[in-house]
User: What shape does this take?
Amino acid sequence: MSILEKQLKAPPPRRSHRRLYIIIGILAALIVLLLVFTNVDSDVAFVVHFVAPPPHFTYAGHTDYVSSVAWSPDGKRIASASGDHTAQVWGASNGGHVLIYRGHSAVFGVAWSPDGQYIATGSLDHTVQVWNSTTGAQVYTYRGHSDAVFGVAWSPDGTRIASVGNDGTMQIWDALTGQHVITYNGTSFLLRGTVALNAVAFSPDGQYIAIGGVGAATLLDASTAKVVGYYGTRGGQANAVAFSPDSKYLAVGRDATTVEVFDIATNTNAYTYLGHTDSVFTVAWSPDGKRIASGGADGTVQVWDALTGGHAYTYRGHLDFYWGHFTSGQQVDTVAWSPNSKQIASGSTDNTVQVWTPL
Assistant: This one.
């Protein structure tokens, strides 16, 4: 067979670059539109923000909204509560050595004992459970509530626990035995009868308990649960309460986009913080007394001067798009300061806890 008789292979088909040219053209048109109709500096800032590593640590161990966070007294661990039916304990610096407590349905509140050995958690299942913070072993279950428990707080001396819930009561009991001590039934100025209570805090000196619900925040004597005073407007709802470290002031986060700060002794408004654009769900006073952090439905955490209300910093880690965080419009449900006042842990409906340093 001569070489002329050999069947030659057909040459490979030429690739059409038409599709590539179309894609390039569309991208070029989009870039031109952005340059013409938007601010170039803003566009560049968005791109840099999206691809740059975020200046915070994100704990992503939960599979549903994070309702409450609390820092251990030694600052080494964080406890977080979630709608995924767990409370989790993890290293504050890197999220390591995770302990998962599964004794509840959805968990709404979490609080450490002052000595760091135990954790109390309140749940949709109507109970508060106390368990060992190192092993996760349950110590006892408190069953005094008849509906969901929204908030728990440990007394500064470690002897008592207070809880509030959808049954409209604040209950105090012995932290070691779970034996009931006293019950306060919440009432509303605007609504007849009992209404839900959703926030509770002991004053650092142990003299008072503040509770939040419909209307004004209520201040109670911690030993008798007798009303000492009402703080704030009677309309709307008090979603969060926090005492200053010296127990002289009370911050109240409200559904009217405000945080009201009151002088407890005189029951007067020191100032009202107006930085949020939607309901405020969580408030925390820094342990050094210098700043207050608040978060809410607008997706931000805002940090401001505790004496003057002057705004200092807005954190948008739960709200913004960036690499690894592709959700937007998430509300912030909880904030907590580290014991040294240098960091904040915040939890959100984006299912994360983020640990960051306020500037």
Q: What stands out?
A: The first strand starts at residue 56 and ends at 59. The chain has a mean pLDDT of 89. The chain has two domains: 20-50, 58-356.
